[in-house]
């Protein structure tokens, strides 16, 4: 997946596009999105890596993107200091989508519990396609 995500969308071959599309279809939040829209969305995703204990999202910040985990785990915390963990996100898990969809500020803080390899979907891309 790292190799596929490292390429711009237009440079991915059919099998790479299919693999990325398959991954997006396995994300529960995107399960009901029509395939042509998922194909368009797959062209806009970006890979990002966060180190263990690195803050990914801070509660109260503006929502500019959402993330899908494809490697590692991240904790969802009810406080800015990341001391009150609510649950853990694992591969195929998504976070940041609620604030993005509703144009709200972030409702929780997210911190990498291990090294995390994520797929970032920017708000502008998501809103223009979905």
How would you summarize what this structure contains?
Helices cover about 30% and strands about 30% of the residues.
Provide a descriptive summary of the structure in words:
By secondary structure, the chain is of the alpha+beta class. Helices cover 29% and strands 28% of the residues. It has 5 helices and 8 strands; from the N terminus they run H-H-H-E-E-E-E-E-E-H-E-E-H. The strands form 2 sheets. It has a 4-stranded antiparallel β-sheet. Helix 2 crosses helix 3. The two termini are 23 Å apart. The mean pLDDT is 92.
Tags for this entry?
130 residues, 4-stranded antiparallel β-sheet, alpha+beta, globular, Jelly Rolls, 28% strand
Give the C-level CATH assignment: Mainly Beta
Q: How many distinct beta strands?
A: 8
Number of domains: 1
Coarse morphology: globular
Helix % is 25-40%
CATH topology: Jelly Rolls
Q: Largest beta sheet, briefly?
A: 4 strands, antiparallel
pLDDT average, as an integer?
92
Question: SSE order, as H and E?
Answer: HHHEEEEEEHEEH
Q: Distance between termini?
A: 23 Å
Going by CATH, the homologous superfamily would be Jelly Rolls
Low-confidence stretches: none
From the alpha-carbon coordinates, what is the Rg to the nearest angstrom? 14 Å
Strand-residue proportion: 25-35%
Q: What's the CATH architecture?
A: Sandwich
């Amino acid at each position: 997946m790292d190799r596929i995500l490292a390429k711009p969308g237009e440079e991915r071959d059919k099998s790479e596009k299919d693999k990325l599309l398959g991954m997006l279809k396995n994300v529960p939040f995107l399960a009901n999105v029509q395939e042509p829209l998922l194909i368009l969305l797959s062209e806009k995703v970006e890979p990002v890596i966060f180190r263990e204990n690195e803050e990914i999202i801070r509660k109260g910040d503006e929502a500019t993107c959402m993330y899908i985990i494809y490697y590692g785990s991240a904790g969802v915390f009810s406080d800015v200091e990341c001391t009150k963990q609510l649950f853990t996100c694992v591969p195929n898990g998504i976070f940041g989508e609620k604030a993005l969809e509703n144009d709200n500020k972030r409702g929780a803080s997210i911190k990498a519990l291990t090294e995390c390899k994520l797929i970032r979907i920017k708000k502008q891309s998501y809103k223009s396609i979905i």
